[in-house]
Amino acid sequence: MSLRKANRLAFELIQEKVYSVAVSTAPILDGDKVQQLTSQDQENSPPYLELRDTLRGVRDANNTGALPVRFIYIIRPLENGDWEFVVDAEEKGDDHSPIGSLVEFDYEHEKPILTQARADVEYARDSFGIWLSAFAPIENSAGETVAMVGVDIAASRIQTLLRRLLYGDLLAMLVALVLASALAAWLSRKVTQPLTRLTEFVREIGRGNFATRLRVESNDEFGELAAAVNQMAEGLEERESLKGALVHYVRSQAADSKVSGANDEDSEPTQRRVTALVAELCGFSQLSSQLGSERVFALLNEYFSTMIDVVLRHGGSLEKSSDESVIAIFGAQSENPHQERSSIEAALAMQQALSKLLNDWNIQTNKPVFLEIGIHSGTALIQHSGAQDQLDFESVHSVVETAASITKVGREHNNRLTVSDTTAENLHHTFPLDSVDDHSLDYGLFRVEMPKARV
Q1: Which of 444, 348, 441, 347 is nearest to 402 (CA)?
Q2: What is the CATH number of the domain that holds 313?
Q3: Is there a contact between 436 and 413 (Cβ–Cβ < 8 Å)?
Q4: Are 301 and 443 contained in the same domain?
Q5: 386 backbone φψ class: left, alpha, beta (φ>0; ψ -120 to 50)
Q6: Is 153 helix (H, G, I), strand (E, B) or coil?
């Protein structure tokens, strides 16, 4: 039983890693440049080389340890239902797939869906080994999905470790039948204790304690398995910041521009208008006692993945948050005169997405599960340096704190979506607004009429 749990845990952790690599890579790929690549003679063109080098950087950063990323590539669909390669990070050789070469799928269900990020639900086996793949959509500057980034992880090593563990158990059982009862008892303790620790580790992961680690006390197969699972647990711990996955990308961009412009003369910091959205998931905690921690954790992962996708599609970026809250910033990377409208459109899309999730989950609850959202527009400092403006993220905190306070007031009034007057003044009557009779904040508040959710 413990071996089956270890096998399932290994699969889930591999699945989490390959999915995390795919969804964190897709936003850094330029969809406009992908669209420019149409023939094999473009493989030495600047757009192709730039995309290839980006993919290689991701591959090389993740090709160590027990679960290395083996292949990473960009593919797109054809009108006849087939898929073709656009960019392949692999060096020239038998494993390299040039532009226009067809992607081979053994089964129809293995093909990705163009607008949907997903990881395979089972291993794929071929003459090269055992693989697990994930795909994430690549968008152009117009927000259209034009291709998919694919990531393949070689799972052969972890499978070998699990098989060795199984063979070791079988051998121990055979020896126990032959040896005396004292020797059998000693062997039983030797085998049982590591499995007990592994089982408890699985339970800790199920409770959401991703910082827990197995102690590696030996160099045998148990020690190797513990080391491999610990390495995968580190990736799962990073998954806890799934709702902040986009923060890593945005801040990496800012850091890159800072390095590239380090030799330029900096100008005086100026102010930029930004809009903060704080969405609090209410009533979800009641599900823990009904469904158990593992099921609730899986639902939360699906919820955060969905909300991150909504924020991305509406031009927002994510700030780190705690509990079940999502914090999005609009206008962070460049001047955006339509940021207020984009934030409200994102809020409405989040409400509809949650309604669809609840309908798909089909869970009976004693209290309603809903999103309470507050939106506020204010100013943040930026530094003009190098080729790109650098936003002082610390200066955004006051805007975020005000949006969080608006969320709290909106919940008291059962509003679901509440905006400040600084946000409302730039909406130009685009959305129906009702004034909120509340004077607890220094801002006028308005309730946005919510359309009926489509399920």
Answers
A1: 441
A2: 3.30.70.1230
A3: yes
A4: yes
A5: left
A6: strand
Residue 353 has pLDDT above 90, yes or no: yes
- Whether residue 373 lies inside any domain: the answer is yes
DSSP string, 304-369: HHHHHHHHHHTT-EEE---TTEEEEEESSSS--TTHHHHHHHHHHHHHHHHHHHHHHHT---SS--
Residue position matching structure tokens 């939360």: 300
Expressed as residue numbers, the domain containing 81 is 2-157
Q: Beta 370-385 vs 388-391: how paired, if at all?
A: antiparallel
Tens of pLDDT, residue by residue over 275-302, are: 999 999 988 877 766 777 778 888 888 8
Task: Output the domain CATH number for residue 112.
Answer: 3.30.450.20
Q: For the chain, give me the number of helices (H) and strands (E)?
A: 12, 14
Average predicted confidence (pLDDT) for the chain:
80
Q: Is 454 left (phi over 0), alpha (psi -120 to 50) or beta?
A: beta
Choose one of 113, 140, 157: the last residue of a domain: 157
Confidence of residue 317 (pLDDT cuts 50, 70, 90): confident
Q: How far is it, in rounded angstroms, from Cα 383 to Cα 450? A: 38
In 3D, which of 439, 390, 386 has the Cα closest to residue 413? 439
Task: Out of 20-34, 207-221, 245-259, 420-434, pick the least confident.
Answer: 245-259
Residues facing residue 418 across a β-bridge: 374, 447
CB distance 317 to 247 below 8 Å: yes
Q: How far apart are CA 443 and CA 452, in angstroms?
A: 28
Question: What total of structural domains would you count in the chain?
Answer: 2
Say how far apart CA 87 and CA 83 lie, in whole Å.
13
Last-in-domain residue among 137, 157, 177: 157
Q: What is residue 97's three-state secondary structure?
A: coil
> What residue ranges in 251-305 does DSSP mark as E strands?
270-282
Q: Distance between CA 152 and CA 75 in Å, rounded?
A: 13
Q: pTM, whole model, 2 decimals?
A: 0.45
Residues 283, 147: one domain? no
Lowest mean pLDDT among 90-104, 251-265, 358-372, 391-405: 251-265
Joined together, the tokens standing for residue 382 give: 């930026």
Is residue 290 within a helix (H) or strand (E), and if so which, with residue range?
Answer: helix 287-291
